[in-house]
Amino acid sequence: MNAKSISAQWRPAAILGLLVLLLIAPFVLPTYPLSVLTEILIFTLFAMSLNILLGYAGLPSLGHSAFFGTGGYAVGLLAKYLGTPAPLALLIAVVAGIALALITGPFVLRTHGAYFLILTLSLTQVLFGIVWLWRRVTGGDDGLPGIPTPKLPFLLGRVSDTANFYYLTLIVVGIAIATIAWVVRSPFGLALVGIRENERYLEGLGYPTWTLKYVAYALAGGYGALAGGLFAYFKGFVGPGQISWLLAGEGMVMVILGGAGTFWGPAIGTILVLLLRYEVSAFTQRWVMILGIVFILTVLLLPQGIVRLPNRIREIRAQLRREAPLPRPTAPAHHTPSERAVERVIERS
Amino acid sequence: MAVPALQLEHVSKVIGGLTILEDISLTVQPGERRAIIGPNGAGKTTLLNVIAGFLPATRGRVLVFGRDVTKLPAHRRVDVGLLKTNQQPAVFHELTTRQNILIALLRGRHSPLGLGGLVERDREIQRLAEQVLEEWGLLDVSDVEVRHLPHGYQRRVELAARFALRPKLLLLDEPAAGLAVDEIPAFIERLKQLPRDMTVVLVEHSMRVVFSFADRITVLHHGAVLADGTPDEIQQNEDVQAAYLAGAMRGRDAGAA
Ligand SMILES: Nc1ncnc2c1ncn2[C@@H]1O[C@H](COP(=O)(O)OP(=O)(O)OP(=O)(O)O)[C@@H](O)[C@H]1O
Ligand SMILES: [Mg+2]
Question: Of A186, A197, A212, which is closest to B93 when you measure between CB atoms?
């Protein structure tokens, strides 16, 4: 309790510090790390949008790349065929993501647990198939290359292109993340946690749980598509890989690794996964294996994610001072949101 | 005559070809305290779930304050003033006591979607939560996750959350089960202090609680109404004696001794 209020006290200062660091990053970082940082920002948004479903509402989606890809292809198609300016294209990407969620929601949200996982996965596969086969429009497996990178005009070309796009990403992702923070801390966000904990109990208190899930699904779809749109600009390219369920799985790893159902967890998970991919792969091709080991250790030792590491260390230190045996993890393993999602998978199957 | 608080008309429930409830009709008047008793497996919990909307009735109608709610989903029945507690306390285990109360209060005050301001900045709601916590003696555990609380406290959190929504018709499914013997008198006191304009339907095995609280008692047996009457009538009823009561009372007293 005490520790919580102390960290709450420091939160504004910490966020301000982080913001300053992010703002000056282009002046201290060379081009390559800066582009990795840009990618981290984009995937943080992706992971946070998935976290609304997986972490807060306890809906284990393995199809979140469907929205990422929809956003990407919206941007790619608009750039290729209509030359739509970036702000409008990103807006349309978000609308497309929300629309996809509103259309598919009534089908996938009928199910829970394993069935939800499989249905969302299938949704991704269907979209993947459409993109793959509809070569004339989508370019098939060649994708759509040559998407022009948008530029922030008011930076007056004084910074490099990499830095310019970095700032654009920072602004868009920053605003999106701020609105996600508002959503999860609103009564709606608390209700989502109620759904994760026990949907029936929440309904018994008079909440229209199905509608709440539908709205959450649409929001997650919109944010996911925004991330996908940004990524298409970042790469200057969109292809079927950006819709593949492998990407959805990676998102799941980011969320669970960092801490599902916590606000900053997905950001930490994203940083870890991308740093492992880009830094470790410089030494060895086995980065996926190392990621796997990190993932297993985290789930075993920090079931609530890496974001809980400081709490865990504090607990252990407090316990050592009292010379008592080591405490169990902060929650019994089967009580973490992600494990609960998995538990439900087992229950329903 | 006043509109009944609860009316069941020929309600049946069939699950997987098995008739769990058969042609149940009963009327509960506003302000009445009705107990529903019966042996294990008689269908008491199923009946409450049909009334609250968690299970659809296979046949028959459910009316709450004169309104036909048979087709309404559970969350819409809360709008009519109906709330239910669970045999296992219906609390959110990973939320703190305060958050459990807040979730209930926010339903009462915000639009269904509740995409409003920030919960922690809502002074009014926080003040109300503080009041509820104090009233139910939960201030000490307000920031403890409910899964760490003993059963009796979890029950209190459940009841406090329901009362925060000011129910007009309250269904209680074995609220005294799992309480320690010395907690029961205080619990009976609390039940007796419920506002008289609230209608209460109580499913309970503890005859001590039932006979000190109920105005009328309905006895369920094999999914059908076996008897219906005042506590005295029920105690005298030979069918009830044979089917349930003697055994239940003997069992309870032996257990308590
Ligand atoms: N979903 C279901 N499917 C099949 N049978 C069920 C289902 N739910 C309940 N039953 C059966 O219906 C009967 C009534 O169950 P119910 O839980 O309503 O009894 P109860 O009177 O509340 O018992 P207890 O006093 O033990 O709580 C039992 O025989 C039970 O096995
Ligand atoms: Mg029961």
Answer: A197
Domain boundaries, given as residue ranges, for chain A:
30-243
- Three-state DSSP state, B220: strand
Strand ranges across the sheet with B6-15: B18-28, B6-15, B59-64, B67-68
Say if residues B60 and B12 touch (Cβ distance below 8 Å).
yes
Structure tokens at B235: 């105690």
| Angstrom distance (rounded) from CA A312 to CA A323 | 16
Which structural domains are found in chain B, ordered by start? 1-81+167-257 (3.40.50.300), 91-165 (no CATH)
Which residues, in sequence order, are bridge partners of residue B202? B35, B172
DSSP-assigned beta bridge partners for residue B67: B64
Whole-complex ipTM: 0.89
**Type of residue found at B129:** A
**Is B4:B66 a contact under the CB 8 Å cutoff?**
yes
A 10 A CB-CB count for B158 gives 23
**Cα angle B229, B230, B233; round to 5:** 75
Is A211 within 8 Å of chain B by CB?
A: yes
CA-CA distance, B143 to B98, in Å (whole number)?
6
DSSP assignment string, A220-260: HHHHHHHHHHHHHHHHTEE-GGGTSHHHHHHHHHHHHHH-T
The arithmetic mean of pLDDT across residues A208-227, rounded, is 95
Give the mean model confidence (pLDDT) for residues A119-133. Answer: 91
pTM over 0.90: no
**Mean per-residue pLDDT, A119-132:** 91
Residues lining ligand 1, Cβ inside 6 A: B 15-16, 18, 20, 38, 40-46, 87
**Rg of chain B's alpha carbons, rounded to an integer?**
19
Q: What share of chain B is helix, strand, coil (3-state, %, to 5)?
A: 40, 25, 35
The ligand 1 atom nearest the CA atom of B20: 12
